[in-house]
Specification:
Serine Threonine Protein Phosphatase 5, Tetratricopeptide repeat, 69% helix, single chain, mainly alpha, 5 helices
Length: 88
């Protein structure tokens, strides 16, 4: 049984976001990543995947902001950023 909305963890929100992303519901994915980040602002993976969506949508300023947060938490992810978002 799925967790009630008020009982969802950052990991539950992240999982929902990934499903939305794979089904092309990018706005819902961004919202779900944001919910995960409200619970845990240090959730680097959520920042990174949210950045990838903004990048895909051509929202480079928003992508850059998310990348900044993810790299503050996980500086060793710079190679991943360069691989998926080379011109940021």
């Amino acid at each position: 049984m799925a967790a009630e909305l008020n009982e969802m963890t950052q990991y539950d929100w992240f999982a929902h976001a990934r499903v939305y992303e794979t089904t092309g519901e990018l706005d819902k994915a961004i919202e779900a990543y944001e919910e995960a980040l409200k619970i845990d602002p240090q959730f680097a993976k959520a920042w990174f995947y949210k950045a990838k969506i903004h990048y895909k949508l051509g929202q480079k300023d928003l992508a850059r902001e998310c990348v900044k947060h993810s790299l503050e938490i996980k500086p060793d992810w710079e190679s991943h950023v360069k691989k998926y978002m080379p011109d940021l």
